[in-house]
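User: Structure please.
Assistant: Input sequence and predicted structure:
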Amino acid sequence: MSVSDPKKIDAIAAKDNMLIMLITDHLRWDKYQVAHLQMLQDKLNTYIRFIDNKGYAERFPDKEFTEFVIEINFLHQYDEGFVKMLELAKPELFRRHITVKYSVE
C-alpha cells in the first residue's frame, strides 16, 4: 500500500489518546507534480474520512482518541506545492485535531 492506493490506510497504531496513521510515498516529484499532489490529496481525504467516521473503532473498540497524527514518509524530497496544500488545509485539520507530519526517508 502507498500513496498510489488512495482508498487504503497504509498503517495505523494507537498511543495513549493518540491515533497515528502512516502514508508511504515512493513517487518522484518530477514532471507529474500535479498528479502526485492529487494522489496525496485523495489519500489524505481517505484518512480524514476514516477519522470522521471512526473507522478505527473496529480495531480499537475501547479507545476514545482526542488526537490524530498522519505521518507521511516520502522516499524523495517533496515539492513545495505539497507544503502549500497542507497550509491551506491546516484550519480544517486543526478543527478535527489532526496533525500532519512528514519526512523524507
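The chain has one domain: 11-104.
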